[in-house]
Specification:
alpha+beta, archaeoglobus fulgidus dsm 4304 fold, 33% helix
Length: 253
């Protein structure tokens, strides 16, 4: 990729996103998704990439699979990877997706019975500049239902961390309460979710692939013991432990 200018790369990536966007499914496709208590859902995946401090090239790609509804660990895969695509805002998926996809493919090859029925992704789905974030990339390329769950608000398409946004957050009374993230166009790109009674700071949920927003929101809430849903929290914790064990000097810096 080094022979391409950033402008050329952006044009190529925009074209690829537009093509993949045509394959995106924004509705429920599985029987368990239509069940009030998600009957039939047994395995929920979580993915995350953790970086070494001061190093934005080497990272730990992490996949966990938890049982549902008990959220107990069934499988984990920690892999050091070298990112070869540059960081460009709005195109994070091109840096991270290949390694998360490889982790899912390794699992499918070695223990297909543990493949998750849905994957919660530490990042955005439709709630994105071009309505095709990391969770959409991973969903379309893996074929699995995916949900984007971001910890921070992406200020995009007229949505901003405004006084009105803060008032909406303050109006969330209990875990499970939410409000829509509505673009300037009027389209709802996702929802801000108060994920637990104990946490007043919301997470931002959006469709990744093969799931509706309401189902994605409900599922995310049922996976929360704390603010961040357990599959993503476990992926984050375990990838950081892996880095501390293998790169103690870097982790302390």
């Amino acid at each position: 990729m080094s022979h391409m200018s950033q402008d050329e790369l952006v044009k190529q990536w925009e074209s690829q996103q537009a093509s993949m966007r045509q394959l995106l499914v924004e509705e429920d496709t599985e029987d368990w998704q239509r069940s009030p208590d998600f009957t039939g859902l047994e395995r929920v995946g979580g993915v995350d990439l953790s970086y070494i401090k001061g190093d934005d090239v080497n990272a730990c790609a992490q996949l966990v699979v938890l049982s549902y509804p008990n959220l107990e660990l069934l499988y984990e895969d920690s892999q050091m990877v070298t990112l070869n695509a540059p960081y460009i805002a709005g195109f994070l998926a091109f840096r991270e997706t290949p390694y998360l996809l490889e982790a899912l493919q390794r699992l499918e090859k070695t223990q297909p019975n543990l493949l998750p029925q849905v994957v919660l992704v530490d990042g955005n789905g439709l709630f994105h500049y071009r309505e095709f974030g990391l969770a959409c990339h991973l969903g379309v390329l893996s074929g699995l239902p995916c949900v984007g769950v971001a910890k921070n608000l992406l200020q995009v398409q007229g949505i901003s961390n405004s006084q009105q946004h803060q008032l909406q957050i303050a109006s969330l009374q209990k875990g499970g309460d939410s409000f829509p993230l509505t673009a300037a166009s009027g389209k709802v790109l996702g929802k801000a979710l108060r994920s637990s009674d104990r946490s007043t700071k919301p997470v931002y949920v959006s469709v990744g692939h093969r799931i509706s927003l309401e189902t994605a929101l409900r599922l995310t809430h049922t996976c929360c013991r704390y603010r961040v849903p357990e599959p993503i929290r476990q992926a984050d914790v375990r990838s950081r432990v892996y880095l501390r064990l293998h790169f103690p000097a870097a982790a302390e810096s």
